[in-house]
Amino acid sequence: MTNDQSPTTNDHRPMTNHQRLLAQQGETARQQGQYDEAIAHFTEAIALNFEYAWAIAHRGETYYQMGQYHKALVDFNRAVELNPNHVWAIAHRGVTYERLERYPETLADLNRVLELKPDYPWAIAYRCRAYEMMGRYEEALQEFDQAIALDETIIKDWVTERGLILSFMGCYSEAMVYYQQALQETPDNHLTLYCIAFTKTRWQGLAAAQVDINKAKAILHRMEKTHDSSAVIYELGGLAALEGQTEMALDYLEKAIFLDYLPRRRALHDLAWLDLHGDPRFQALIAP
């Protein structure tokens, strides 16, 4: 998450010390996860100056972090109305659109941001995600490589993630090179092992991938005992789907979706779930 640190950034009316203090208190509370307190401070600051774009944008980001995306959009829209070149607000509005799966609007905002600030790896990485969610994998890979060239830390587990895009493109042998590289760095990385399992299944068949599936399951079952993680549960479901254990797979998927928004979107693209795309229960689970 990028931070627009100055409480006066992009604002034109003079700020009083009290307004700055309220805004900074709101930002401190937001960064500490105290969202209700943050909203209260930002709202008080905005009440003193209805054109306080910085406070409005950061209240929008607070709403975003609370999962109140439509309220976030109201604030981001207002901040951008006050300052059409407010890069931070435009970027975070774009990501809010991405969370709402409004991808054309996501791209419009991120394209605008990158016109204003071309070497902004955070925005490039989110444009990559938007392309990936739209199934535009070649464009996603180009964005991915550009973001990593600017900042390798911008995408977590980037070696595995690059392999994942290649898997989506059907470039299985090339993807496996990246997965093996990632395993050399972190041998028990559950995401890497999961990607190897479904990639090898699609590439060489279930029998050839069974050892890899079993290895991934062993790691995930160990993690399941200590982590109530939607990612772990989701990946166990994907492995069950690969093995044809449909009801078990869908039970895992349902639980994962209950815990977090991301598993539903992952399942739309994940090659592990490919054989279940026509299943009515699967279709119901992944429906927006």
UniProtKB/TrEMBL annotation:
<dbReference type="InterPro" id="IPR019734">
    <property type="entry name" value="TPR_rpt"/>
</dbReference>
<dbReference type="Pfam" id="PF13181">
    <property type="entry name" value="TPR_8"/>
</dbReference>
<keyword id="KW-0802">TPR repeat</keyword>
<feature type="repeat" description="TPR">
    <location>
        <begin position="87"/>
        <end position="120"/>
    </location>
</feature>
<dbReference type="InterPro" id="IPR050498">
    <property type="entry name" value="Ycf3"/>
</dbReference>
<dbReference type="Pfam" id="PF07719">
    <property type="entry name" value="TPR_2"/>
</dbReference>
<feature type="repeat" description="TPR">
    <location>
        <begin position="121"/>
        <end position="154"/>
    </location>
</feature>
<keyword id="KW-0677">Repeat</keyword>
<feature type="repeat" description="TPR">
    <location>
        <begin position="19"/>
        <end position="52"/>
    </location>
</feature>
<protein>
    <submittedName>
        <fullName>Tetratricopeptide repeat protein</fullName>
    </submittedName>
</protein>
<dbReference type="Pfam" id="PF00515">
    <property type="entry name" value="TPR_1"/>
</dbReference>
<dbReference type="InterPro" id="IPR013105">
    <property type="entry name" value="TPR_2"/>
</dbReference>
<feature type="repeat" description="TPR">
    <location>
        <begin position="53"/>
        <end position="86"/>
    </location>
</feature>
<dbReference type="InterPro" id="IPR011990">
    <property type="entry name" value="TPR-like_helical_dom_sf"/>
</dbReference>
<dbReference type="Pfam" id="PF14559">
    <property type="entry name" value="TPR_19"/>
</dbReference>
<feature type="repeat" description="TPR">
    <location>
        <begin position="156"/>
        <end position="189"/>
    </location>
</feature>
